[in-house]
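Possible regression after last week's pipeline update?

I re-ran a chain I had predicted before the update to compare outputs. Posting the input and the new output here so someone can diff against the archived version. Not blocking, just want to make sure nothing changed silently.
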Amino acid sequence: MNRLTAIKIGAKGATTLLFKDTKFVMPFNANYDSLQNESYISNLLTRRLNPEEGDAIIIGSDDTHKKRSELAAKSAALLTIMNHEKYNDRF
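New output (post-update):
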């Protein structure tokens, strides 16, 4: 869903990673360490973002425009928040 949201604004896509048990996993496969072969990226994300258990990290991507990548990530994050049950329980 986040990927499609990013594509609709013209970006290449968006990737959502969850921080679970000190590793980064995809929402649909919470047992697979998605960055197991990318220790540099995993360490960079951990060091720079200092994620806590259950945090979501959304990475927007685009080949030509940095700003479009940022907008893709923000759009995907807003969609994630709007679809989250805790958010919906408040309204």
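Follow-up from reviewer: compared with the archived run. The mean pLDDT is 88. Marking as no regression found.
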